[in-house]
User: Fold these one by one.
Assistant:
Number 1:
Amino acid sequence: MIEDRWYKNAVIYSLSLDSFLDTDGDGIGDFPGLNARLDYLQGLGITAIWLMPFHPSPRRDHGYDVADYYGVDPRFGSLGDFVEFTAACSQRGIRVMMDLVLNHTSDQHPWFQQAIADKNSKYRDYYIWADKKPEDADTGMVFPGVQKTTWSYSRRAQAYYYHKFFEFQPDLNIANAQVQDEMLKIVGFWLELGVSGFRMDAVPFLIAADGINAADPDPAFHFLRRLRDFAQWKKGDAVLLAEANIPPQDCLKYFGDAGDRLHMMFNFPVNQTLFYALAAGESRPLKEKLEASRGIPETAQWAHFLRNHDELDIGRLPDEQRQAVFDAFGPEPDMQLYGRGIRRRLAPMLGGDRRKLELAYSLMLTMPGTPVIRYGDEIAMGDDLDLPERQAARTPMQWSGERNGGFTSSDQPVRPVIDQGPYGYRKINVAMQRADPDSFLNWTERMLRLRKELTEIGRGSFSILDLPDHLLAMCYEHQGRASVFVHNLSDRRTDVCLDPLPGECESGRALVCLQTNHAVPQDEEGRYDLVLEPYGFRWFRLGGLEDMLQGDGSPAATAAA
Ligand code: NOJ
């Protein structure tokens, strides 16, 4: 059977318009800028773009404070530009996923404005109110240290309103049927305009019982099913990808036992333990989290990532492990955020060490699921710790050695371009790295090409080989295809002995190293002896490239059909 669930073998690239490329000289990236770089992205080998919020918004939280769900912030362009963008993506076989922020609106949204102006307005019940400040109002803040409370007083409304996030982001009342209908309408609108799916913001809070006084959270979970049903009715291949930083045992509820709720979820537990593995050179907790990720429905898929636009959240690691990650990657108080995270980009966290960067990427690309990369990480961009909070890792894309890194001609970029030190745009930029076959950019491009050909990672089943804790070796199988990925997390050169792969002996195919294209010699028992360099890794495929080039007919291997 040809499997054409595109999200099972996609490579997703996340970007925020404001920091990508500015074409009109106002210092803010825009749709024409993004359109101008689609060929670059296609060349890099990504198959889908996750576009961060671009709606009209006061942008007090990077656009996660939406003031009009149906519009485009004029600083980025028009609705027409948006449709040109989706059409241009479609021409290139690139899918578009957009952020869907349904947990809350901006306090400037007309619904909230009407809700506070008129107690009898139908919009009043779109939000969550209390006459008296609830006793737990000063607990459960998502941004501790910056956010003071979860219930704020509106003088105009003469009541307290609930906000899981900042006070300018009032939570919508999902218990109200009209609110649910509004949400579906928004989804339908953007699907009609050419998107293939949504990155759903803050899903645990969207469906949480707190604030809506519902003893039973199940109705909210049912909403996820309704949403999926609706989205797929509108567009058969639409995909919902949830941001939900929750413990592994809760994830099934989000996917739905029958695979009838969300298609994809970011795997936060694996993300956090992967950083612990890098920090401590120890794979045991990562193996445990990988084991805990099994057993999801056939149509469900994990999304794996290294860094995103927020802090690296290590809040769910046991204390000792969290401390090890802080010590290794964010030792200074200034590098840490909200008591649980690190606000740096990947490259500076890893000390700019190319071996560690490649190891981190190799690990992420071979996790069971779909990889998500973040703009700028393909050239190993740095951060600017002088910027407040999460903005440190949101500096403009560095395209060239020209003024402002080629991002804008304005003297006032939306955020400062990094211009000093080893991560300054004169040293780290796309133009330079394109010209250098050994650059991180060209390395990433080669790895993405391989990754897409290895469809068994996204579609198949995995086993973890029994090796010492400084190593992680995973084997994948799918419809006769098999591969193995071996990583050395330590700073020591190490010997590795691998057993033959399942199915190998019967097929008579050799195990081929994909980096060198050489078959690996076997001993008398059919085992392989390898040596891995410090932080080294190797990717192997049964039958090697020959096998791979035949493809398995699934469209995602060559981007969307
Ligand atoms: C999660 C987003 O990733 C984050 O950037 C945002 O601040 C919150 N949700 C609130 O929307």
Note: The pocket of 1-deoxynojirimycin is lined by residues 61-62, 64, 101, 165, 201-202, 243, 309-310 (CB under 6 Å).
Number 2:
Amino acid sequence: MEGKKTILLAGGLGFIGSHTAVALMEAGYETVIADDLSNSEESVAERIGQITGTKPKLYVCDVADREALRRVFREQEIFGVIHFAGCKAVGESVAQPLRYYRNNLDTTLSLLEVMAEFGCGRFVFSSSATVYGVSEDVPFTEEQATGGCTNPYGWTKYMIEQILRDAAAADPKLSVVLLRYFNPVGAHESGIIGEQPSGVPNNLMPYITQVAQGIRPVLHVFGDDYPTHDGTGVRDYIHVMDLARGHVAAMEHLNGASGSCEAFNLGTGKGYSVLDLVHTFQRVNGVEVPYEIAERRPGDLAVCYANAEKAQEILGWKAEKDIEDMCRDAWQFTQLRASSSSSS
Ligand code: UFG
């Protein structure tokens, strides 16, 4: 029997990486994680092991460090790489652009260089719907023009997509999938892994869970005068386990592709407003989320959701979980973390 294929997850202890590790292992892959712990906890590797029965091998290293990556490739037979390692806070990227360009581009270049040295040619990149910039042409399709990003974080995603297109065009042994995520939320159904932002959350769902927990007094709803059904911003929230399965489908698609670089939207194709999410969260979890209307946040779009047909047609993937699952699983994770940290 053929041995299991091993996937390297760069930045694999983070929110999306950790859930993808679980999905890959459930699909029969082995996983190896390289992560510098800059925005993650080492205990996540154990928790992945708790869910799957096997703790992934962890290399604590900077993914931009080629010598450290060479060690990983020497010690493991890597079938493909999924690149999650990157800074991702929009506001921070405006304040620290050089750090964002340096880190996000360097990790990508180092991975590609070391993969070429070791003859590994399957690469999946964590991109974002942010590459569509300020387009109002919703739903977004993959053919739509990219660019016009509103912050350095978004530009790093845009630039890395270009680097990957150029690299795949020059090297027939390299095949790339760009996964453009919409708004990942929720947590693994077990509540063992989930989203753990450090400091004040930038994103809506972790802010809601912290208000529900009483860590923060009130949610600020950024604007209620957008041209949407209730005036608040509309987004395509996608359950992180659906998103994780999208990476498995992408890796399977790459098994056989050569010299290609293709983009896929990973979203549900449905839009929900800020208040839709708040009200659903309150209803399914039976908790209060006090909120008040605040000014619009600079750079926010009124409406952003995916046309997700290409992923369904070509990858055979579609999102299956709904907004209630997302709210329930996010809250279960938050409560389990709170009780395990108070008992430890
Ligand atoms: N929002 C609030 N209050 C908050 C936080 C967010 O009202 O405290 C609103 C925003 O205005 C927006 C919606 O909730 O209407 C979602 O905001 P998020 O910050 O959760 O997500 P964004 O859509 O702004 O950003 C996400 C990813 C980025 C990515 C972007 C575009 O977090 O990485 O989508 O794809 F760049």
Note: The longest strand covers residues 122-128.
